[in-house]
Write a structure and sequence with these properties.
Helix content is 24%, strand content 35%. The chain has 3 helices and 8 strands; from the N terminus they run ββαββββαβαβ.
Length: 156
């Protein structure tokens, strides 16, 4: 049985984001950063049905020292003004073509997706684009249904 419920090809447009970053070994601290971002969003009244969060590990820990690995938690931002705060900073999502795997929103399913996507891509006719990071995407409308997504950049 595959690790995903569904997969589709999607073109993501370049988008503005608000982000929090941490540098260090991937693991439980990434979840803490996600929770910190969720707290910030809630405290600013920004938790809405269309809210989308991204978890983005930028570095491959097999070639980057653990203490230098970067992890961002981003919120897609479509408003004109940027909140004045030291907690989040503006950033930009490059966009492009992605294979989007729909997953159950459990730690086990997300881990299975990270372990299995590279083997699944060729069978689905996709080739990974290693110039862009793989992202976890948490759209509130899906999270409310206990679902999330793994977005893998692919070549056209």
């Amino acid at each position: 049985m595959p690790f995903y419920l569904n997969v589709q090809k999607e073109t993501m447009e370049p988008s503005a984001v608000l982000l929090m970053r941490r540098v260090g070994a991937y693991g439980p601290e990434n979840r803490r950063l996600m929770n910190r971002m969720k707290g910030w969003i809630s405290s600013h009244g920004l938790w809405e049905q269309k809210t989308t969060l991204l978890g983005i590990p930028w570095d491959n820990p097999s070639i980057t020292k653990a203490e230098a690995c970067r992890y961002d938690v981003c919120m897609l931002w479509d408003k004109e003004t940027i909140p004045e705060t030291d907690e989040v900073v503006p950033g930009q999502l490059v966009g492009g073509m992605y294979a989007v795997f729909l997953l159950e929103h459990t730690a086990e399913a997300v881990q299975a997706a990270w372990s299995g996507y590279s083997a699944a891509l060729p069978a689905l006719g996709f080739t990974v684009d290693a110039s862009r990071p793989v992202m976890e995407r948490y759209r509130k409308e899906l999270v409310d249904r206990h679902l999330c997504e793994l977005c893998v950049p692919i070549l056209k």
